[in-house]
Structures are given as structure tokens and as C-alpha cells.
């Protein structure tokens, strides 16, 4: 992976944490812990090419669906 792609993925993951926290009225640490426990960051990284082109609502919904699925 190139340094540029690594940087873009890192920025996207950070953005996802911040936006999910705002949408769910949580702080960044709570979301980071949740994402770690449910392996959300792995999922987002694996699907970066598709997800980073989508809108905020779609991404938040996708994260919610993934967390529900992983929690079962």
C-alpha cells in the first residue's frame, strides 16, 4: 500500500469515528472502543474503495448494520 493510500484510509477511518460519534451522541473514545471490539475498522479498511465514495448517511447506516451483524 502506498503512503498516500495509507494516509487517505487513516483520514477516512478517523472521519468515520468522528461522524459516528456525533450521530450517536458518543465520545471518540467510546466509538473507538466499540469499533475495535466489533472489528469495524477492519471492515471499513477492507471496503474503503467503495465506502469513501458514499455519503455520510449511507456510511453511518452501513456501520450500524455491520455492528448489529457482528453482535449476533
Describe the largest sheet.
none
Mean pLDDT across the residues is 95
| Span of the ends, CA to CA | 32 Å
Q: What percentage of residues falls in helices of 4 or more residues?
A: over 70%
According to DSSP, the number of beta strands is: 0
What is the alpha-carbon Rg in Å? 12 Å
Overall 3D geometry? globular
Number of alpha- plus pi-helical segments: 5
Low-confidence stretches at least 5 residues in length (pLDDT < 50)?
none
H/E element sequence? HHHHH
Into which percentage range does the β-strand content fall?
under 5%
Structural class: mainly alpha
Any idea how many domains? 1
What does this structure look like?
There is one protein chain. The chain is an all-alpha fold and 72 residues long. The chain has one domain. The protein contains 5 helices and no strands. It has helices at 3-24, 28-37, 40-46, 48-51, 56-70. α1 packs across α2. The longest helix has 22 residues, at 3-24. The N and C termini lie far apart (32 Å). The model has no long low-confidence stretch (mean pLDDT 95).
Amino acid at each position: 500500500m502506498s503512503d498516500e493510500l495509507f494516509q487517505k484510509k487513516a483520514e477516512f477511518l478517523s472521519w468515520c469515528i468522528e461522524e459516528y460519534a456525533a450521530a450517536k451522541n458518543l465520545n471518540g473514545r467510546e466509538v473507538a472502543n466499540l469499533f475495535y471490539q466489533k472489528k469495524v475498522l477492519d471492515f471499513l479498511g477492507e471496503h474503503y474503495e467503495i465506502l469513501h465514495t458514499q455519503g455520510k448517511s449511507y456510511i453511518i447506516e452501513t456501520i450500524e448494520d455491520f455492528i448489529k451483524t457482528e453482535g449476533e
